User: Fold this.
Amino acid sequence: MHRLIIFFLLLQVFDFCNGGVTSTYIRKSEASIDIPIEYLPPPPGYNSPEQVHITQGDHIGRSVIVSWVTPLESQSNYVTFWAEGAKHHHKHKAHAKTTSYKYYNYTSGYIHHAIIKRLKYNVTYIYQLGEHNSTRTFSFTTPPKVGPDVPYIFGIIGDLGQTFDSNQTLEHYLSNPKGQAMLVVGDLSYADHYPFHDNVRWDTFGRFIEKSAAYQPWITAAGNHELDFAPEIGENTPFKPYTHRYHVPYKASQSTSPLWYSIKRASTYIIVLSSYSAYGKYTPQYSWLEEEFPKVNRTETPWLIVLLHSPWYNSNNYHYMEGESMRVMFESWFVQNKVDMVFAGHVHSYERSERVSNVMYNITNGQSTPIEDPSAPIYITIGDGGNIEGIANNFTEPQPSYSAYREASFGHAVLEIKNRTHAYYTWHRNQDSERVAADSLWIYNRHWYPKKESSSMA
Ligand SMILES: *[C@@H]1O[C@H](CO)[C@@H](O)[C@H](O)[C@H]1NC(C)=O
Ligand SMILES: *[C@@H]1O[C@H](CO)[C@@H](O)[C@H](O)[C@H]1NC(C)=O
Ligand SMILES: *[C@@H]1O[C@H](CO)[C@@H](O)[C@H](O)[C@H]1NC(C)=O
Ligand SMILES: *[C@@H]1O[C@H](CO)[C@@H](O)[C@H](O)[C@H]1NC(C)=O
Ligand SMILES: *[C@@H]1O[C@H](CO)[C@@H](O)[C@H](O)[C@H]1NC(C)=O
Ligand SMILES: *[C@@H]1O[C@H](CO)[C@@H](O)[C@H](O)[C@H]1NC(C)=O
Ligand SMILES: *[C@@H]1O[C@H](CO)[C@@H](O)[C@H](O)[C@H]1NC(C)=O
Ligand SMILES: *[C@@H]1O[C@H](CO)[C@@H](O)[C@H](O)[C@H]1NC(C)=O
Ligand SMILES: [Fe+2]
Assistant:
């Protein structure tokens, strides 16, 4: 009897209607133009530290990696820090490892990465870089101790680039004072849009994001625009600029590559994957992920979130099905392990999926249609940061049943984790004020409260 009812409900949801909502919001279409280099100048002062950004430095949130560039001298390569409100004699120092790289005819400045360890949880620290009259001061707040009911608020951004639209997206996020850490689903600078991948655009990107990334951790995944693979100009090492500039704590999760890793932060377990590294059976990424899922303890971290670049469920004609091979490899693990949400970018639009899976198919059985699955993640495509390539406004018609909401506008999202069962998720298009959510949803934790969510939209 119950099965019959469920069967009819499924029929209603998946057969009688063509999926969810395609927003009727009409976005003013204007080209996305990169901010001119002279609008993103280095800070004043001799050898002044620039492009300051931070990320989590260990597995549990008690370390921070501080990264910055000095253009002319490898000095000063240390960070001075102290807890807010502490007396001056409580100042500490952490030394950086300094690197630099060449890319075609570009030579980077001195890139410093300092790991500050053994910080206290949930404390604001002030930190200083540079010397004499080039000293610059910033701050960050460590997350609360990892635990099941710790509230925490993430911003989510993808395919940001450095256009005037990118600036609008970032300013929009910053106008909400509640965001505590940024989840970044890849495609950062778009330097590769320029002849010879002009890496000066990696520098200007670093200066552009400093207003956010110097003050709260950016948890980054790599996208295709991080590859910078250009054998025609002798650049054969994929991810060279990205891996020199953006460090992550990959060794803390027993990863062998900075392109995939995990962290715990407050009540979340975040797994970062690489769509552009091998993930077939027996590869390092595959083996790592296979070992990783059993380590997730939902009693400690109820929320399980995955970041990757190329979306698995995307009903836009741009990059259609590019994520399919990775979905085939990993989707059954995501369902078995009840991943709550997967954030991807790549497609320069916004889309949210229903909880669906497509893991039945075995080549001969014909069961290759996604079905509603309460153990499946919600897939969010949020490649709408506003980069130079512009908006992806060509959706497949009719809207497939797996697609709950889609809109071709630039924007960002906010995920407010309340406790082990509830999180409130909102997506904000750039044209609205921060208080307005164009798409919003109460998300229920798949381990603790696997109830069906009900969509709501404005
Ligand atoms: C690099 O080479 C390009 C093309 O030859 C040239 O336009 C550019 O000015 C060069 N840049 C540097 C830093 O030498
Ligand atoms: C900053 O310091 C440098 C070297 O110590 C000095 O040459 C320069 O005049 C100073 N500039 C200002 C504005 O004080
Ligand atoms: C973190 O500290 C703030 C005050 O600085 C406090 O209000 C908050 O409850 C703390 N959070 C946790 C989870 O301890
Ligand atoms: C970014 O936007 C802010 C707020 O509108 C503005 O003050 C700032 O000048 C912009 N930055 C650039 C580089 O255009
Ligand atoms: C999971 O985490 C809880 C809370 O921290 C702890 O009590 C429990 O022992 C952990 N379980 C495993 C299998 O490690
Ligand atoms: C695929 O599914 C069909 C129908 O359930 C079954 O007969 C067949 O043995 C399966 N093939 C494989 C390779 O598992
Ligand atoms: C949208 O994508 C489809 C499929 O790739 C293509 O045939 C069509 O021309 C595209 N429409 C526009 C307006 O670009
Ligand atoms: C979890 O948060 C939700 C939303 O704020 C609230 O309705 C619910 O009562 C909370 N659960 C517990 C156990 O506190
Ligand atoms: Fe991309």
Residues 1-17 have pLDDT under 50 and may be disordered. The longest strand covers residues 92-99. Residues 200-213 form the longest helix (14 residues).
